[in-house]
Amino acid sequence: MTPHLNRRGFLAVSAVAGAGMMLGGRLQAAEPEFSTTLHKALIGLPSEATFKSWKAAGFEGMETSGQEAWGKSPAEAAKDHAMADQLGMRIHSVLFGWANFNDPAKMAGDVESVKTAIRAAEGLGADAVLLVPCRIGGMAMPEPWEFDIEFDEKTGHIAKVVPGDNAKFKAYIDAHNQATDATRKAVEQLIPVAQETGVVIALENVWNNLWVKPAIFKNLVASFDTRFVQAYFDIGNHVKYAPPEEWIRTLGKLIAKCHVKDFKLNPNGHGGEFVDIRDGSVNWPVVRRELDKVGYGGWLTIEGSGGLSLEEQNRRLDLICAGK
Description:
12 strands
């Protein structure tokens, strides 16, 4: 039986309970689950209709893609910047994509193209250009789950890619080391333009068979020793090599931007396929916590999942941002 409370006792108990709720509210406000705020974007081309529809669906910004975007003059790009601003949106990044720095016949031309992209990014108001500097293939290489890389931290050169005899992978190791040297040579030519414009060169290793483990990719990015060269981390691209949270812990403060993508591993962990975000093997609550731990408070840009409506993509991204 509940003890009888007189009016004075009831008010006293209520006051204590109310104070506890207020205190709890203050503690919750002072100690939110995450210290970082993430921003939501998609990949596309600037237009008034696109910006309006994306904003209505809940997105805040855009990453531009393709030569139609990165090939613009700074003056042309500035018009898109102004349009985005007027509509309350942000063009935060330019996706240049693949370069051929390890092809001597194409390296000089591609360096100049990336310089054009960096200057366009400045005009667009973007603070980074996504660059995949090289790609290799066509030779024997380990399966994703077989990689166990040993490399020289000073040169970034690979010594071994699997335990034991590596003779069958010699062509891959040689091509990898040549690509690392070529990337360093090319990016060093880009850094002065990045410094001039304030635009970060954000390196990505997107299924190009290079720097496929977190430690060696970190070594490459950190070797430039400048804030103008950072990492563009695609959360879904590397699931077949290592869990995304391992990549995030390793890259840490080197992460400039993140793509949001998902990959469904086969039951044995060997191979799989890309799927819509939150339908794959990425542990999104763990990823969100790790991003917070390394202090990442930047953009999450969905790449793929185009079969979902804008509203559904936004809903799923909201869940990711909330750590769910």
